[in-house]
Amino acid sequence: MQSTKAAAALLVVATAGLLWIAVASGEEEKQLSVYAPGGTSTVRVLDIEGREYADLLAVLSPVAKVTMRLDGSVARLSGGTADSTFAQGETTAQIGNRRVRFPARIVLRDGRVYVPLVALPVLLREMVNLRAELHEAGRRLFVENTQSRFSIELKKGEATEMALSFPLRVNPNITQDGNKVRLLFRTEPVVMASDAVTFNDPHIHHVQYEEKNGAAEVTVSGSAPLMVAFSDQGRTLLVRIAPAPPPPAKVASQPSTPPPTAPAGENPPATTAPASAPATTPVPFDSVRYFVMIDPGHGGTDPGVRFSDKVVEKDITLALARRLRAELQNRGIPAVLVRDSDATLSNDQRVVAANGQRAALYISLHAGGLGSGVRVYAPVLTKNDETLGAFVPWDRVQEIYRERSVLLSRAVAHEVGTRKIPARSFALPLPAMRAVAAPAIAIEVARPTADAPLEDFDRAAYQQAIAIATANAIVNTRDRMEEPR
Fold first, then answer.
1. Burial of 366: CB neighbours in 10 Å, binned 0-12, 13-18, 19+
2. The sheet that has 204-212: what strands, in order across it?
3. Which of 223, 241, 259 is the last residue of a domain?
4. Whole-model pTM?
């Protein structure tokens, strides 16, 4: 148990692009992002004699087929629109019938041709006839007008919401810092028209844009902690104030039956519980940092299971997610939906939403046509997986939270069972949830009974009973879910 806690203490937010999750020391390696029509590539940047250099072939390879032959201290490149010659220590290169001058000398090292970053737009034009724009300070190279400008709209209503709309799907790394949320775009060629925008709004105040080390960072500042949700199939990011805790409801305290300790897979014994009241008095909310991330499965172009012309899994999961969010907020626990519309999201985007905002719990919702009642799954690793001391591969981080995930799955199954709905808990390998850095479960809802009509999926009373039971289980186990302080 001590080794598990030690590993957890070393974890940082997991993103799909990281190979390992660990606290590391030292400066971040310099890199250049090359945004080409065919995709984004990253090239290492070297400091040579006070200037920044990049491997020329590494920059050219995504946009043209160029080969190189070394003759001593001379590199001869073939391909593109003209053959070229680069000599060690020279400040000019022969490209076709033109002589191109550089602001610093050419460097041949380890079988590679290194050129100053500032020379890349000229070289792309002369060697492969492509236009390029270099953002030198941010180390970002845009080839053939690949820049993607996004718009910002502040929507005022019952709750202030900021919409960042992009012409392409985005998947930023999301982190929170007090009342700020930072969106880091590494692979997307996003740019902002200005460096900063200020709003005369009491909730969301300011948007700051900065380019650095091959990435674009957008920082949104507000008067309270902020949350981010994906919409419009990943083309829109919605920034909102994190839900504030409602005043504690006056609910009569009732004895709570502890979750069963039976092995996963066994149906816990049912007990009688009121149909609408929480099982316990709401837990006072002491920090907005504790919130539940609810992930309605499927969405957008991925409908999930189509039960009939009118009943589709993606609609069932979203309706249930909204009910669960309301029940949690009624108990003083903030909750955020990964999607609150019919949006298409990848598994990576869902994991980034949870990990980047440091959700305390992650609840994935699904609907199935087989069997009846509710099945609750806790993700576990296979026997072939192993944890390597304090260094945990990003796609196995869920193992650190395994015991809490199993505990939560049993608690939810138990609470659902008290409402006379068949419920079972299971511990199974769930690849889509292996990278979630929080206690996590998947809830799959089937029809109330095996012979019930498919339309019963949409029965408000059925969904509400499941939402109430799940919220009760989260309240009852909260003290065992939170990270040690």
1. buried
2. 173-177, 180-185, 215-222, 204-212, 196-198
3. 241
4. 0.59
